[in-house]
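Hey, can you fold this one?
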Amino acid sequence: MAPGDFDGPRIALASAEFAADPHAAYREMRRRYGSLAPVELAPGVPATLVVGYHAALRILNDPEHFPADPRIWQRGIPADCPVLPMLEWRPNPIRSAGPDHLRYRSAVAGALGKVDLHRLHATVEEIAVPLINSFCETGRCDVLGQYAQPLVFAALSAMLGVPPEIGRRASEGMALIFGMADAAAGNAMLAEALLDLVRLKRSTPGEDVTSWLVQHPVGLDDEEMVQQLVLLYGAGLEPPQDLIVNTLLLMLTDDRFAATVLDGSLSTRDALDDVLFNDPPIANFCISYPRQPILVDRVWLPAHQPVIISMGACNNDPAIRRGEILDNRSHLAFGAGPHACPAQSPAVLIVQDAIDQLLDALPEMALAVPRSELQWRPDPFYRALVSLPVEFPPSPPIGMAGFR
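Sure. Predicted structure:
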């Protein structure tokens, strides 16, 4: 097949139809095209979606032929393209190649490696308890808006050492970027807030990820620092909050978990691993741009056009799936190869602790609407609910176990 020469229209990943049942779409892609499918990230933005597990591993482990630097591609992309802020070049590990990638990744991985997980566990509890107390007496809540979003934001802010006023501006900017309604304004707002944070940490460092980045031997300048923080916000907010919601949805609706939440037969971690395999919050990402036309599984991929790894599809590829996957963590939810996510441990800890705190406090929680009425957000990259309404017997406020 010639480069980019697919038969028929491309599949729109940012459509309501795709969001409603992406796995049916993945199966149809695999049936019709094999491991590589023609998709559209936004109107007029073609890409190739990798839906085969083995093809994905080949690409993820070959940065020489599949670099992550998008600069040649983005020359032909209009400034108002809604997905540009998610894909455009930035001096950070996931948008760079070669020595630049090694430099940025060493700084980010080094700073994240200093996070005290025991301290983070205590931080999540400190954040979770007052959030739960804000709705436990009402008998209802939206887990996404009233719990997962504020909890993840507060936990990430604590890790990064972000003061409340800077955090508020950063949050507003990220909301605009993820909503794609005014992504350019969101980019500007976020960058201004994070530059203020960098200047603060250069003058007054603390025991936090931003300070460790500032102090790293690679010597990141202000712009580089801002872009590492943009990456940490992008990866540290949306995916964990969606993972909390998607995992809780599974635990409340799947008989393997719903019948055992209280008796402990299956753990929160079991449910979390199930979601990372079957419905990972980052469904389509790990983007690369081939240096030249390249043949993969009898398909010629065009040079400098996005190649997107579908973690949601590849994890469910019949070529590798054999029955149940509990206790199996060979999924691609955190990527693979030199661009694999270095924040897996703190991310999983935040998600698991957040769910455990909520279910410990409100063990009789149930969906407040039929599952069929839940809405999935149309988004080419994320598997995310618009909301998760739940109900439970009204309960008195809880105390801070282990805190004085």
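The first helix runs from residue 16 to 20. Let me know if you want another pass with a different chain boundary.
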